[in-house]
From TrEMBL:
Pfam families: DUF423 (PF04241). GO terms for cellular component: plasma membrane. Belongs to the UPF0382 family. Keywords: Membrane, Transmembrane, Transmembrane helix. It comes from Methylomonas koyamae. It is a multi-pass membrane protein. This is Uncharacterized protein. It is found in: Membrane.
Length: 119
């Protein structure tokens, strides 16, 4: 668990910085303000949840925490991934995927709280 989650956290942080820089410099003149806002939201959520995943990687291996890590990774993929694609390619139906990532984030944070209370 520790190695996998820490690797995913590091990759999430790395790609978050890279995609943030790409959005700020490479897409600035190609996307509308609305699309850039969507893109920035994707970067923001990816970075915060990558940090949370790194935290989970440092905690003792418990079932609730393993699920929290899995859901954080899934949330990054679904939430931020769908927003990146929506912003860049304007694929409207991807807007239906984004809330699934948000639900994964919420469940992960709930499991973190549960694990903390059981400590």
């Amino acid at each position: 668990m520790r190695r996998t989650f820490l690797t995913l956290a590091a990759l999430g942080g790395f790609t978050g910085v890279a995609l943030g820089a790409f959005g700020a410099h490479g897409l600035k003149h190609l996307l509308s303000d609305y699309q850039l806002d969507i893109y920035k939201t994707a970067v923001n959520y990816q970075m915060w949840h990558s940090l949370a995943l790194g935290l989970v990687a440092q905690l003792p291996a418990r079932p609730a925490l393993r699920w929290a890590g899995r859901l954080l990774a899934l949330g990054i993929l679904l939430f931020s991934g769908s927003l990146y694609l929506l912003a860049i390619f304007d694929i409207k139906w991807l807007g239906m995927v984004t809330p699934l990532g948000g639900l994964a984030f919420l469940a992960a944070w709930g499991l973190l709280a549960y694990a903390a209370l059981r400590e």
